[in-house]
Write a structure and sequence with these properties.
Blueprint lengths: L12 E9 L2 E6 L3 E5 L14 E7 L2 E7 H4 L12 E7 L2 E7 L1 E9 L13 H4 L2 E7 L2 E6 L1 H5 L8 H8 L6
Parallel strand pairs: 2-10, 5-7
Antiparallel strand pairs: 1-2, 1-8, 3-6, 4-5, 6-7, 9-10
């Protein structure tokens, strides 16, 4: 009796946490998201870039907090009951990102991830984007967490570009 070979497809799946920056739906890989907080008391720090909101204490750890909307040049974050603080972990370093709201978690096949069209991205914002994925009617922008965390004081980020040119980069 001949044995049938079983073909197993190796579909690689990716799970992301979605969040909103205004009307833009973005995501971080779930493996990078350490925690989502409803609120935190953020202590302002003098003489830092505009996108740095300050620091807060998370169980004895001092965590920097950045306004992700400002980092990407999407304007000022709205203050509402839906706003959240995403704590991400990259290379054993925790950083908080303020977002307008959290959408949820979804999973997709990695092959569904597409490069974002160049005409949509400015040079500054484009380096933060890993790609885009469609789910339902929405298109979600997958951000490269490690590149967003690497924003340096000396770098000219999207919010500075928008202020100097008066043009809001499109994401």
């Amino acid at each position: 009796m001949a044995r049938k070979k079983r073909v197993v497809s190796q579909t690689r799946m990716m799970t992301v946490v979605t969040f909103f920056l205004g009307t833009e739906e973005c995501a971080f890989p779930i493996t990078d998201v350490h925690q989502i907080l409803r609120e935190a008391h953020v202590t302002r720090v003098p003489n830092v870039n505009r996108y740095v909101e300050g620091v807060f204490n998370l169980r004895g750890l001092v965590i920097p907090v950045m306004d992700l909307k400002l980092v990407l040049g999407l304007g000022v974050r709205s203050h509402s009951q839906d706003q959240r603080l995403l704590i991400v972990e990259i290379n054993k370093r925790l950083v908080g990102f303020s977002v307008d709201s959290v959408g949820g978690v979804f999973e997709f096949e990695e092959k569904q991830l597409q490069a974002a069209p160049d005409v949509v991205l400015s040079k500054v914002v484009g380096r933060f984007v890993s790609g885009v994925v469609q789910h339902g009617q929405a298109i979600t922008i997958l951000l490269n967490t490690s590149d967003v965390v690497k924003v340096r004081k000396t770098e000219r980020i999207a919010s500075d570009e928008a202020v100097s040119t008066g043009v809001r980069p499109q994401v």
